Every structure is written in C-alpha cells, then in structure tokens.
Amino acid sequence: MKMNEGVEWAVHSCVNLCFVPGEAVTAKRLAAFYDLPTAYLNKQLQALTRAGILSSTSGPKGGFQLAKPADKITLLDVVVAIDGADEAFRCTEILKAGPGADPKADYRKICLVSQAMRKAELTYRRELASQTIADLVADVEATYPRTADNTRRWFANLKS
Question: 18 with 89: CB under 8 angstroms?
C-alpha cells in the first residue's frame, strides 16, 4: 500500500497549526515551512477543510486553522481526507475463473487471501484511528522540546 505524499504534508501541517493556536496560517506560509509547492499543499489543505478537519478563512488575515480540537482528529481522519475511504485491497474474485469454482459464491467473503488482506487493513486502520494529532504533538514536544517555540517563532518572523 502506498499513501499519497499529501498525507505526510497534511499531518505535518495539522501538527504545525497546533503550535500556532488561534492563528489562521496561509497555504503559502505552511508550504514555505517545508519548501513545498504551495498549489499542491493547498489542495491537501482544501481536502482537510472539506473533511471538517481544518477551517479556512479568506481575506488578508485568512488562512487555515484546526476546525476541532487536535485530540478529536485521528491520523485515519487525515488519511481518509487525503487518500479517500476506499479499501487498499480490492478482491476481484479471480477464484471464480479457477477450476471447480462456484459461480454463485461470493469469494470476497470466503477467499482466504481476501480475508487475510482485509484483516491486515483493519489492523492498519485501527492503529491510525487510535492516534490523534494531539498524540503526535505531545510526542513531538516530549522528544523535541524546542519545536513548538521554534515553529511559533518561524511563523511570527515570516509575517514581517
């Protein structure tokens, strides 16, 4: 399974927005933080806005900010907003073409390969759903204590 690089950008943007609470940050400023293409990051931020993860404000003081508390935004929420809710594995029931196949059987349900793949994906989704942006922020602050202040300073200096 391969995630869109926009997932990484979106998660980092959400974490950075936690370090500047109450401040709307433009896509241009968020993109500049990691030297990302603004137009592409803006598409990810718009997807997060459509999903209710971010809110956006237009105008001179406009930009993006979290639409709800960071402890209410899971990594799965972000992944689904960027990559969609479709399952990674799609059983096409190739067993129906095999010798001795039952054309009436639903191989998506009885195929052991399909079951194993779905079980793995469920584990993956549960893990993403168990981690919030607030959890990441806490881990960042515990591991790299200067990050929040450095991020706030960087955004404050960029304004001038």
Answer: no
DSSP per-residue codes, the chain? ----HHHHHHHHHHHHHHHSTT--B-HHHHHHHHT--HHHHHHHHHHHHHTTSEEEE-STT-EEEESS-GGG-BHHHHHHHHH-S--S-----GGGGSTT--TTS-HHHH-HHHHHHHHHHHHHHHHHHH-BHHHHHHHHHHHSTTHHHHHHHHHHHHH-
C-alpha–C-alpha distance, residues 118 and 124, integer Å: 10
> 76-119, pLDDT tens digit by residue?
999 999 999 988 888 888 888 888 888 888 888 888 999 999 99
Predicted pLDDT at 144: 97
Position 15 pLDDT exceeds 90: yes
| Burial of 48 per CB tally in 10 Å (0-12, 13-18, 19+) | buried
Q: What are phi and psi of 84, to 5 degrees?
A: 95, 170
Looking only at the bridges linking them, the beta strands covering 54-57 and 63-66 are antiparallel
* Average pLDDT value for residue range 133-160: 92
